[in-house]
Design a protein that fits this description.
23 helices, alpha+beta, 11 strands
């Protein structure tokens, strides 16, 4: 592989015009497709194999025309102090609003609070439910504006009016913090590479890669039903790995220049060595992201594949566009150890001075190999302590109660809780399928009576049968809020009662609704976590055996990853569930951790952790393969790679931290989790635990059974074949000298 990538790097350097034109054309093509595509909305949410989804599908079949998947809105009214919603003036204002909303082109039905029990017991709060014929992502902007206008008209009468539901669900915004993250990355690159131009190359290529990836996602969003969150997560991951991969190639290029190689040769060597590490690091990220499909949640699968595609683009750009741009840059990208005149450079450091003054990576690695056991214990105990809160992890999906208090959705949620109880925001829909029953009406009544007898039930509405009379829906209002453990227990209790009814009557009793769907999603993700870990870690373990030709090094990499991800989950629980530092992180409402967070973070963090493992340990193995003893190889590997790995980690942390400012709670939480995980993995696991373990293992770290050594393909990540080219070239030079003599 090293030889192939070496040739690719030289080709890209020589044919820089062709390579640059290819990527510019690809970016323009993706941009044109995005410009002509419909805007991305909220992806349709289906969970195959769950009871909630089965009930939802049954509603579509047995209640045609009711738009079971249509957008909904709750317009909540509150009377001024000392008044009631039943007062004539307030009642007239509400009825005017209902009439105004009923005229909408996409509106199916608007409930009248005074006819449907939509007024609270104390008379201070009322609500009207609006049902639309299309889903939230398909809703016309004119319908949203009409909804807002109707609320404003009602406010003019003196009422407090707020709107909840998914009809107003907006595309999440990331805020200015994302730009700050990129700014931090730029500063780190300048310090690391010693040149404004060299620092600009990774940023430029990362932006090109993310541009292609996000534009492609936008172009296909409507066709493939990709939600607005998909492009944000793809840009988050693509930007981070794009900068890192380019940074490693540019750094190796400068190191090769410092060895006295020509610029074209240095570009080929950089792609042949660092590029090999980029390929395998990118492959581990892609495996982790594509592996999310085993969960069998379409939305999560699409998010993973879209992000994996962006990572693949980042790898290809690092292997081709970076050497092409290095060709354009020429002498303005200086060898390692030199700075540009603008940054106070202008002369190369004396090689003797550099040898006498070891860099920070050398000093740190020397310290670790002298005290490996102490460093190992300190790192493991520290991460273990950070992981303690993960034992209290509670999963759920965000609802309007997790929105910022500044939003109308959150204020509507709070008003409904005040007037009708917290469970009113998460009603359960019980679907009774009595198609094969002799007396469907008796079954409906029995189901309603048994549900009323359960704990934590505030209200059970009368059964509402369909036209055929064989299926009915029963609305159940829990006593607790949607994300509570009590509501989850109630769902399980209803399903247990439904199983008894089925045994006696043959009728199916299914629980659905947003709350039940969230509970089923959490359970499905919990059940999938272990198979997902086995698949992803297993595949990556096999890949790393091929890369490092060792059993213990990949095993150490996997165990270190588990430590860092558990510690990161502990930090997420401490902030978003327990409320530690919540004000600093912009968390206005603590509660359960988003159901998708653990498995998504496991996938992404595993891929990124393996990035640092590959980049760092490849340099260590390269030194060992070239004859150095294990302890010295660790020091040599850190001398050449610690600075760059540190810079790459800081860049990733900065980029991920930028997404903490997002208006979307899922993006905010994932940004914090990934930034924390990279912090733990790069600076504790890879920079401390890895060298300590390698120092303790010595030669055993590189042990591989002979039969397996013969069976494995030689991918040559260390560039040994390139060293053979050097030896062959030296021999040719010697032969020429002999001939001349």
């Amino acid at each position: 592989m090293a030889t192939f990538l070496y040739r690719l790097g030289r080709f890209s350097f020589r044919k820089r015009h062709f390579v640059a034109l290819f990527w510019v054309a690809l970016l323009a093509l993706a941009g044109a497709g995005a410009a002509g595509a419909p805007a991305a909305g909220n992806s349709s949410f289906s969970i195959p194999g769950t009871e909630a989804q089965k009930a939802f599908d049954l509603l579509d079949e047995r209640f045609p025309g009711t738009s079971a998947d249509g957008a909904t809105a709750r317009v909540v009214f509150k009377a001024p102090d000392g008044q009631k919603m039943t007062d004539p003036g307030n009642k007239a204002a509400v009825q005017d609003t209902v009439e105004e909303l009923s005229g909408g082109s996409e509106v199916v039905q608007v409930s009248d609070p005074y006819r449907g029990g939509g007024v609270s017991r104390d008379g201070s709060i009322a609500y009207a439910s609006v049902t639309y014929e299309v889903s939230g992502m398909e809703l016309e902007e004119s319908s949203r504006e009409a909804l807002k206008a109707a609320a404003e008209d009602a406010r003019a009468s003196g009422l407090t009016v707020e709107i909840g539901g998914d009809a107003l669900q907006a595309v999440p915004e990331t805020g200015s913090a994302e730009i700050i993250g990129i700014g931090v990355a730029a500063v780190v690159l300048v310090i690391t590479l010693g040149s404004l131009l060299a620092a600009g190359l990774p940023l430029l290529t990362a932006i090109v890669g993310v541009g292609i990836g996000v534009a492609s996602i936008t172009a296909l969003a409507s066709t493939l039903d990709l939600g607005s969150t998909t492009s944000i997560l793809a840009s988050m991951i693509g930007l981070a790995v794009g900068i890192d991969y380019a940074l490693f190639v540019v750094s190796r290029y400068r190191a090769e220049l410092a060895e006295g190689r020509t610029r074209e040769e240095a570009a080929g060597r950089a792609v042949g060595t660092a590029g090999s590490a980029v390929v395998f690091a990118g492959l581990t990220v892609v495996i982790a992201l594509v592996g999310l499909s085993v969960v069998n949640i379409p939305m999560l699968t699409k998010m993973g594949i879209a992000a994996a595609g962006t990572v693949a683009v980042a790898v290809l750009i690092a292997l081709t566009l970076i050497p092409a741009l290095l060709g354009y840059a020429g002498r303005r990208v200086r060898p390692a150890g030199e700075k540009s005149k603008l940054l106070g450079g202008g002369r190369a450091k004396d090689a003797r001075d550099k040898a006498e003054r070891p860099n920070m990576g050398t000093r740190w690695a020397s310290f670790v190999v002298r005290r490996p056991l102490a460093v190992l214990l300190l790192g493991v105990v520290g991460l273990g302590a950070a992981a303690v809160p993960a034992g209290s992890l509670e999963l759920g999906l965000p609802d309007d109660g997790s929105q910022p208090v500044s939003t109308t959705q959150r204020r509507a949620y709070d008003l409904l809780s005040e007037g009708f109880g917290p469970g009113f925001n998460g009603p359960l829909v019980v679907v009774v399928d009595a198609e094969g029953s002799d007396d469907p009406q008796a079954v409906f009544k029995q189901a309603g009576d048994e549900i009323k007898a359960l704990d934590n039930v505030v209200n059970v509405a009368p059964a509402a049968p369909n036209k055929a009379g064989d299926t009915a829906t029963i609305a159940v209002i829990p006593d607790a809020k949607p994300s509570s453990v009590a509501t989850e227990d109630l769902v399980h209790d209803i399903r247990a009662a439904g199983a008894d009814i089925k045994d006696g009557t043959g009728a199916d009793v299914l629980v659905t609704g947003a709350t039940a769907m969230n509970i089923d999603v959490s359970q499905k993700l919990n059940d999938a976590l272990v198979p997902y870990l086995v698949l992803v870690v297993g595949l990556a373990f096999l890949l790393l055996i091929v890369v490092f030709r060792s059993i213990l090094v990949p095993l150490k990499a996997a165990l270190g990853f588990l430590l860092s991800v558990l510690a990161a989950l502990g930090a997420v629980v401490a902030v978003y569930q327990w409320g530690w530092l919540s004000g600093l992180m912009g968390v206005e409402e603590t509660g359960p951790i988003m159901s998708m967070m653990p498995i998504f973070m496991v996938g992404v963090v595993f891929g990124l952790a393996m990035d640092y493992e590959v980049f760092l340990v490849t340099r260590i193995r390269e030194a060992h393969v070239h004859g150095e003893k294990p302890a010295q190889a660790v020091v040599t590997g850190f001398r050449y790679s610690a600075r760059v790995v540190t810079a790459a980690a800081i860049i990733m942390i900065a980029v991920f931290s930028g997404f903490i400012g997002s208006s979307d709670s899922m993006v905010k939480m994932i940004g914090f989790g990934l930034a924390t995980a990279v912090l733990f993995d790069a600076f504790v696991v890879r920079m401390a635990i890895v060298p300590a373990v390698l120092a303790l293992l010595g030669e055993k770290a590189w042990w591989l059974p002979k039969w397996l050594d013969r069976a494995l393909p030689n991918v040559d990540v260390e560039g040994e074949s390139l060293a053979a080219l050097d030896r062959a070239a030296d021999k040719d030079d010697e032969n020429k000298e002999l001939v001349r003599a």
